Structure formats: structure tokens, C-alpha cells
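Dear colleague,

As promised, here are the two records you asked about, laid out in our usual form so they can be pasted straight into your sheet.

NAME FIELD: protein one
SEQUENCE, THEN STRUCTURE:
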Amino acid sequence: MMVQAIVLFIVGLVLICLGGDRLVDAAVAIAKKLGIPQIVVGATIVSLGTTLPEILVSTTAAFYGSAAIAAGNAFGSIICNTALIAGLTQTIRPSRKVEFASIAWRSGFFFGVLILMNVYGYVTGAFNRPAGVILLLLFVVYAWLNIRRASAEGGDEAQDESGAEVSLVKQLIVLAVCAALLYVGANLLVDNGILIAEAIGVPERVIAVTFIALGTSLPELVTSVMSLVKGYGNVGLGNVIGANILNMLLVIGIPSAVAGIPLEASTVTVDMPLACLVMAVLLVPILVRRKSSRLQGIALLGIYTVYCVVSFI
């Protein structure tokens, strides 16, 4: 039974990785076909595509009553996206030319929402339905801000000439198939993650903030690595920031609005403050110096290593 659970857990990770990667490609192709500015594509559609695994896992977990996975996955993914993925990419190739205005307002939005969520979670011990509805409304505001600021951030740039050759119907079919892969993968990940946690006596939250968070962050990892390979490191950096915002607004917002999420003390006292810390380590030097350094990446990787070790201990 244990071997079967591990195999199915791995199958779930593979399905999520494949589905998330292809979904992003299809979303970008459709956006180019319809003439949507690339900055809006990166900050919303690509980030939404790479965050879909977290959304599906958390929503599924909430319906199953596994609140520790729903909350732990969201903040564990933020920590993983920032400390591991951004840490890795900044260590390999630091960002030298950063679009300050684009990152500045998204950074302010992220920290403002996270601090308010941390205070609310500390006071109430849960994200109830009203809190979930507010987070979903904030997602609408975030999407509107992206559209509103698109022209100032390069929205009038020329579109990819290959967009004219893209088959809209074909890409829509790819989107549907990838969504199905993500749904199946998310179910396998949650079901077998719970079984593995119970079998080895590890709390659900630890599984959520490590293995499941890493598994659902694979699309962000694939996107960031491919951005480096193609010489567009800032695309990966922007995707991490956008994905982290969506982790708060949708990965927490949807299950909270549906069923409410009771929070473990460790989520409020450890995971949420640490998510704020690693984003500060990543973003504050960039906002001050207009570029990142390899030292930031090494520091983030060190923080993530310590976090994983302490979580298991």
C-alpha cells in the first residue's frame, strides 16, 4: 500500500509538471493571437497557469477537510517559489536590468496583502468565508491593475508575428486537456500525500509545506529555468512574484470562500512570517539597487534548507 501511494504521488507530480508547462505555452499562444500585451500575459495568464496546481490542490484538500494541506500548500509554495526557485535562478544568473516600476507596485501589493492576512489569521485563527470573498475581490483588483498599467509597462510593444499562425481552437483544446491533467494530478497528490503522511507519522502541514509545495511549484521552476536558458531571467522573476500574489489571493481565497480554512498555529507564526522574510530578501535589494546579486540567491537557498530541516525535526 505504501509503495502504491508513493508511485501514485510521483505520477501526480509528473502530471502536474506536464500539464502546467503545456498550459502556460497554450495560454501565451492564445494571448498573442488575441493581441493581449506580453506584460499582462506574464503577470496574469502565465502566473495563473503555473499557480493552477496549487489552486486545485488546496481546493481539493479543503473539500476533503484537510485544512493543513490547503493553508500549508499556499504559503509553502510562496516560500518554495522564492527561497528555492528564485534563489536558484538568482544564484545562477542574477538579474542585472530590472523593470523597477513593474516590480515595485507588485511588491507593495504583495507585502500589503500578506501582512493583513497574517494579522487576520493571528487574531481569528482561520480564513473564513468573508475573508475568502475579500481575497477574491482583491484578485479582481490585481487583474484590473495589471490591465490598467499595461501600456505604461510596455503594453504597446509589438506582438509576436507567429501569433497569426496560431490555431485558437487547437490551443483551447490543449488548455482543456492540460486542465484535466492538473485536476487528476492534484487529486493524486492530495490523496497519496495524506496517506504517506499518516503512514510515516509526519504531520499534514509538514508534507504540505515541503513535498506538496515543491510538487505544485514545478511549473514555476520549469518556467524560471527555461527563462534563464533563453536569456530572459526577468520573465522568471516576474512569474515568481505574480505566482506568489496569486497563491495568496486564489489558493487561499477560493477554498476559504467555499468552506473556510482553520489555521494551525505554526502556519501563522512560522510559514506566513517566513514567506514575508524571503520575499523581502529577494525584493528589497532589487528595489534599492535596481539589480540582484548572487549573494541573495545563496542566502535564499540557505534559508530554504534550514526551513525544510526544521520542519521535519
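NAME FIELD: protein two
SEQUENCE, THEN STRUCTURE:
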Amino acid sequence: MRHFASGAALAAALVAIAGAAAAQDAVVEAVQMPAWLERDGRTEPLAPGTALGGRDALRTGPNGKLLLLLAEGSSVKLGENAVLRLDAVATRRDEDLLTAAMNVLAGAFRFTTAAIQKVRQRDVSITVATATAGIRGTDLWGKAAADRDIICLIEGAIEVTRGTDAPVLMDQPKSFYVAPRGAPPLPVAPVSDAQLAQWAAETEIDDGRGAARRGGRWKVILFGGSHENEVLAVYERVRRAGYAAELGAFWRRNERHYDVRIANLPTRAEARALGERLTGQFGITETRVVR
């Protein structure tokens, strides 16, 4: 029989990993769950504050989205049902240089450089399934779809390469490149404001969906009780489903009780929304919000 202590030890280990984020070159800023981190053969749900490094793979599920921050100020957003592998990410502080290689294996992403950071040096390449964009300080959206790869330049300049195709320089804002699978790429064309807004929405975290953010002070309690095995079973089901549940323990009437909770919710409304989404799943029958 598994002991409850093993689940508590796992939760403590994950908290310790998240706490190391300050020294890292990339960190999870916000998560609209479900989302997972795949690292060294293990899969764990993603939580705000998780430190990231080279060879980490990030995956989102239905309605899942991510916001990552790089140490030099750039942000990476990931839409639902997406897979992003961080092949390399590092900031050489002696040269004020960001180096990164990211591989979007599925779904939509957006890479944005904060205005105050645009003067800094970058050596960044983002591969969208079959097409690779070399970036020089920019705002870029892309998607690895089932039948084609899309790269949309919002601002800045990129050079796109794919296999033996001739490289394509894109330096006109609001233009896009489409590479159908198994066919030559289409000519670069302007993108309408309506289409750009629709694409951008695919990578924006939604209000009212229960997204967790770094610094969020609200929690939603999903399950509780004094029976260790019951609580641990719910905890493990929730985590396998891509929700960053934690374990809590406290005394009530001289008896030790436990609860399963998700923390880092920024507002009471977001905590309540997440609880409502999860009620009726994983053995959760009712939830409550605490601060």
C-alpha cells in the first residue's frame, strides 16, 4: 500500500523546483490548465513559477494555454493542444545576449519582445514543425497545424527557412508565410487586422477560465478529509489530468485532515471559475475558495 507521505514528499519536491526559478533563464508566468512539463522522462503538471531549461518540453491540453517569461524580458505564449520543446535557452549576461532555440511541434505560439528590451542582442530561432524563423527583435505568431505551418510577422524582421527551399526574408509588419505540408510555400502576403486578431486570441490566456499566475494569492480547495488514501487518489487524478494540485494538512478536533488544492489564482473570481470547471470530475463534488 502506498503511504500518504510519498504524495506529500512529491508535492514538496515540486514546490522546491518552482522556488528555484529566480536563477533560471525561463520561467512559467501563467498557466491556463491543463498543461504539463516533460523533463528527464517524467511528466508533471505545470504551475506558475516553474523554472525551465534546455530540453524541457511543454504541452497544453484542450483550452490550456501558457505564458513564459525569458530572463531578458521576452515572452512566449502557447495556445491549446500545443507542444513546445525548448532545445536551448540561455542568457549570457556578460554580453547581454539571449540565445534560444525553440521547436513548436504542434499548436499556436507567440514570441514577443518587450519594447524596453528591443535594443538587446538576440540569437533566437523558432522552428514551427518544418519552417524555422531566425529572429532579430520582433513580435511573431505562428502555428504548426495538421496540414500547414504558418508564421506571421507582427513587428521586426525574420528569415524563414524550410528544407531545401530558398530562404525568405520577412521585414514588413503584418505579413505572413504559409508552408503547406508536402508542397512549396505560398508567397508572403499581408495579413488583415481581423485575421491577426483571431490568430492572436489563440495564444492569449482567457479571463474567467481559472488561470493561475505567479504571485496569485487565492486557492481553490478541491477535496478534503481524514482518509489518506482517498485524498491521495484525488490528488493524483487531478495532477495526471494536467492541473497543478498541492496537498495541505491540518488538525481538526484532534484528528489530522488533508486537502487537495490549487494555488496561485490571482482573484476570487478566477479561483471560483476553476473550481466550477473541475466540479464533477476526478472525484470532486464541491469546492471552496480561500485566501
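A couple of things worth noting about protein two: The helical segments are 4-19, 193-201, 228-240, 268-278. The first strand starts at residue 26 and ends at 32.

Best,
R.
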